[in-house]
């Protein structure tokens, strides 16, 4: 746990009978997982006795600044932010600091701004697990295309670092070759599809490392048009339902499961605790360019066809009926 509570009794005592208002600013809900984050966060915050006021920035950094200003104007006691642009929030978050409103950077690290806590997954480890999956399934002497995440997202850099830690020694020895990299400005499939199709059409690829399962889905659809689906190794992350179904079908080879319910609950507890004035107790910190901030980091899990049952299905992330729908 990130916090140690100095108070006793129920949450109503901790808030002195006052309704706690938490603002939740999300970048977008284009990716499947963000709806799950939102729903779990709201459910847990309400169980603690808090009200959640949320906004979607539709992947627009300027709109996110407007959203956060609105939440501050509404009198929220704490802010939880999934940044669209990690470096675009300095002004509005300084306003939050001046108003003594704690800010939790959720999933993606906000850079160069005052932040009270960071709640996320180990994104470097996500990259490592993806690269290890590529080696396992594509082997050596393979040509690999890397589809990076949105350029404005600090997680994309962490993910790429993890991929490089695993692949670089083999690249340096000529055992793996990088056919190319695609780096979109944001997490939209429309920003990668033209380049992706050109690589698939022109290059003989053995594998594609996709920054998330949405990008992996685009890759598989294009591979299918060129009758290469299942022959080219594809790895992604987020354990989206379609990715898990494709693991069963053998046309995606690995996804990375990040226990979103656990992360969302931790973020809700962190926001509530800070809102009622409790202090942070954390053995781990991260540097966001402004200060070292307390962090709680949840470990990701590699998922393949042979461990679906004990991971995403056992956790109730997806049901067995959903995952095996196309095979039963």
TrEMBL record:
* Localisation per UniProt entry: Cell envelope
Q: Which Gene3D superfamilies match?
A: 3.40.50.2300
Write out the similarity annotation.
Belongs to the bacterial solute-binding protein 2 family.
> Per its record, what are the GO molecular function terms?
carbohydrate binding
- Asked if the keyword Nucleotidyltransferase belongs to this entry, the reply reads no
Q: Name one GO cellular component term.
A: outer membrane-bounded periplasmic space
UniProt cross-references to CDD domains, sorted A to Z = PBP1_ABC_xylose_binding
* Identification of the protein by name: Xylose ABC transporter, periplasmic xylose-binding protein XylF
Q: Which residues form the Periplasmic binding protein domain?
A: 22-279
Provide this UniProt record's keywords sorted from A to Z: Signal
């Amino acid at each position: 746990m990130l916090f140690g509570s100095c108070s006793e009794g129920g949450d109503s005592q901790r808030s002195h009978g006052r309704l706690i208002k938490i603002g939740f600013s999300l970048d977008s809900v284009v990716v499947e997982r963000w709806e799950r984050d939102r729903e779990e966060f709201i459910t847990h915050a309400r169980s603690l006795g808090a009200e959640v006021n949320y906004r979607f920035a539709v992947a627009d950094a300027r709109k996110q600044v407007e959203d956060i200003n609105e939440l501050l104007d509404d009198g929220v006691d704490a802010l939880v932010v999934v940044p669209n642009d990690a470096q675009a929030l300095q002004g509005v978050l300084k306003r939050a600091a001046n108003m003594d409103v704690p800010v939790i950077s959720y999933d993606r690290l906000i850079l160069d701004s005052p932040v009270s806590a960071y709640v996320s997954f180990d994104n470097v480890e996500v990259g490592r697990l993806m690269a290890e999956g590529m080696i396992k399934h594509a082997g050596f002497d393979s040509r690999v295309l890397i589809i990076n995440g949105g350029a404005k997202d600090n997680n994309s850099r962490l993910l790429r670092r993890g991929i490089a830690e695993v692949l670089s020694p083999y690249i340096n020895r000529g055992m793996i070759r990088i056919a190319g990299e695609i780096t979109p400005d944001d997490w939209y499939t429309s920003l990668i599809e033209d380049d992706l199709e050109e690589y698939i059409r022109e290059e003989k690829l053995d594998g594609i490392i996709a920054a998330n399962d949405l990008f992996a889905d685009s890759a598989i659809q294009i591979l299918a048009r060129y009758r290469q689906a299942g022959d080219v190794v594809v790895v992604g992350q987020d354990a989206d339902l379609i990715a898990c179904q494709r693991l069963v079908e053998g046309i995606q080879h690995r996804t990375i499961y990040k226990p979103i319910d656990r992360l969302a609950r931790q973020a809700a507890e962190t926001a509530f605790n800070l809102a009622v004035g409790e202090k942070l107790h954390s053995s781990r910190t991260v540097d966001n360019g402004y200060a070292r901030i307390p962090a709680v980091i949840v470990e990701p899990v590699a998922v393949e066809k042979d461990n679906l049952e004990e991971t995403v299905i056992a956790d109730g992330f997806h049901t067995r009926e959903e995952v095996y729908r196309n095979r039963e």
